[in-house]
Specification:
This protein has 3 helices and 8 strands; from the N terminus they run αβαββββαβββ. With 143 residues, it is α+β, with helices and mostly antiparallel strands. It folds into 2 domains: 75 residues, Nuclear Transport Factor 2, Chain: A; 52 residues, Nuclear Transport Factor 2, Chain: A. The protein has an 8-stranded antiparallel beta sheet with strand order 1-2-3-4-5-6-7-8, with helices on both faces. A hairpin with a 4-residue loop joins β6 and β7. The longest helix has 14 residues.
């Protein structure tokens, strides 16, 4: 039961309102094969389609994660949720300076297929949320 609630929560956190939830049968075999190759020990995950790619949400070693895989089966990026307090000091400083009126509701580390690491902060103000990406030095990154 606890695992079911965890996966449901993971799905809500990882995919947000813009993603379309999918059944495993709706995901191309090549996408599922890439996921299995990348994460062979993961036995349970959710699927969503986001901006033409497939996103697998899962938990690995206690961390909430997602992997974005394109329709050709190529890993685009992987994301690991983290506490906002674990963001790099330069990112936290930029948030404190430039986003004073916002609350950080979620944070994550994103690693692209090329190995480039960025940090995502989900910001909330007056009930509206949006994501901002940063480089480790606190500068804004482009996705």
């Amino acid at each position: 039961m606890k695992k079911t609630f965890l996966m449901a929560g993971l799905a809500l956190l990882a995919f947000g309102a813009q993603a379309q939830m999918l059944k495993a049968a709706q995901v191309p075999a090549v996408v599922k094969a890439t996921f299995k190759t990348q994460y062979p020990t993961v036995t349970s995950n959710t699927w969503a389609k986001e901006h033409g790619n497939y996103e697998a949400g899962f938990t690995l070693k206690g961390a909430t994660m997602s992997a974005l895989i394109n329709p050709a089966g190529e890993l685009v990026e992987k994301e690991t949720d983290m506490a906002a307090t674990k963001l790099p000091a330069a990112v936290r400083a930029t948030l404190a300076r430039d986003y004073k009126a916002y609350k950080v509701t979620e944070a994550a580390t994103i690693v692209s297929a090329a190995g480039v690491t960025t940090y995502e902060a989900e910001l909330s103000k007056a009930g509206k949320k949006h994501d901002v990406l940063f480089n480790a030095d606190g500068t804004l990154a482009k996705k």
